[in-house]
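Hi all, long-time lurker, first post. I run a small reading group and we've been trying to get comfortable going from sequence to structure in the token notation. Rather than ask abstract questions, I figured I'd post a concrete chain and ask someone more experienced to write out its structure so we can walk through it together at our next meeting. Sequence below, copied exactly:
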Amino acid sequence: GADALSALAQDAIAKGEGEAILAAAGGGHVGPAAVFGAANDGDPVARGIVDTLVERLGLGVACVAAVLNPEVVVIGGGLAAALGPELPGLREQVSRHVPIPPRIELTVLGDRAVALGAVRRAIEQVEDSIFDDLTNPPRPVVTPPPAAVLVPQG
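-- Answer (accepted) --
Happy to help. Here is the structure in token form:
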């Protein structure tokens, strides 16, 4: 994700190869916006980092798709905003590795995606529980009468 991208960029900067990335970051935090910005401006080092990220992300999504067979994979967090132009390449990368690739989408929720997804799932569970109780009310417990005891006469 964004941390891996930043680590690749920091490695390039440490080797003296990431001047354009550092300039795109304005001397500040080297994050996805700086790397993608430098790549879009034609910097070959930044382009290589983005290509590496897309390849690794594609392999990761392909692994998940091979095991879980999801209909859609939604990418969020710090990468989602910058990954838009790379989405066709990511989709192609995934389709190389699985026969039926999932649909890949980006979310605009950013870092809130996981928290909002958890809240939505909790709401669904409560709704399921409430509606299950309404459609399947508990049955009253019927206690059978005590068994009759026959006592022989005579």
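A couple of things your group might point at:
Strands lie at 72-75, 103-106.
The first helix runs from residue 2 to 14.
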